[in-house]
């Protein structure tokens, strides 16, 4: 069962050597934590090394995504609490768009202004198979966006993006319900 001989006491490390090795491991761990982990995971830069290595941006993105996820969870909880009142989760400034008749197509343009770190939704109530063309432009920065739909217990994600200055496309409703595009400081003409 034993393939090696038992080491002698002279072969074992001394207490001083163990303490030295443990101290070196602790110092290396703290250096990695301060220089790499804190900037890349939490956007905390105590030394500036994380910023020089480009790790701080990763941490800022992760922090922003975590905040957006918690805001989405709160919004979902609010939607469940107010189910049946479809327009209540929409910000007031978004609801004030002015539709303009253009032949048989509906067209609407609105300006939504929000602060960094906040979000807004532009909803279109659509029946299954209907299409909505959209385009949006962010003025003064880039945005993260999530084009999705929900209704009658169903949900679908059409497209997500990060750090985009503009976007456009066509949403074809996979089911009847609310279909949404979101962003920051966005001018969004939509037609259907």
TrEMBL record:
**TM segment ranges:** 18-38
Organism domain of life = Bacteria
The answer to whether the entry has keyword Transmembrane is yes
Q: Which UniProt keywords apply?
A: Membrane, Transmembrane, Transmembrane helix
State the name under which the record lists this protein: Transmembrane anchor protein
């Amino acid at each position: 069962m034993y393939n090696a001989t038992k080491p002698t006491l002279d072969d074992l490390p001394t207490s001083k050597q163990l303490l030295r090795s443990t101290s070196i491991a602790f110092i290396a761990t703290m250096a990695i934590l301060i220089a790499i982990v804190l900037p890349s995971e939490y956007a905390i830069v105590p030394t500036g090394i994380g910023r020089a290595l480009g790790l701080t941006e990763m941490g800022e993105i992760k922090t922003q995504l975590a905040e957006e996820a918690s805001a989405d969870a709160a919004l979902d909880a609010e939607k469940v609490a107010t189910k049946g009142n479809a327009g209540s989760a929409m910000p007031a400034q978004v609801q004030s768009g002015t539709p303009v008749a253009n032949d048989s197509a509906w067209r609407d343009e609105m300006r939504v202004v929000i602060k960094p770190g906040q979000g807004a939704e532009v909803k279109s109530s659509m029946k299954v198979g209907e299409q909505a063309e959209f385009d949006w432009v962010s003025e003064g920065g880039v945005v993260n966006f999530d084009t999705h739909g929900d209704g009658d217990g169903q949900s679908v994600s059409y497209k997500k993006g990060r750090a985009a200055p503009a976007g456009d496309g066509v949403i074809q409703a996979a089911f009847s319900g609310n279909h949404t595009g979101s962003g920051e400081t966005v001018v969004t003409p939509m037609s259907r």
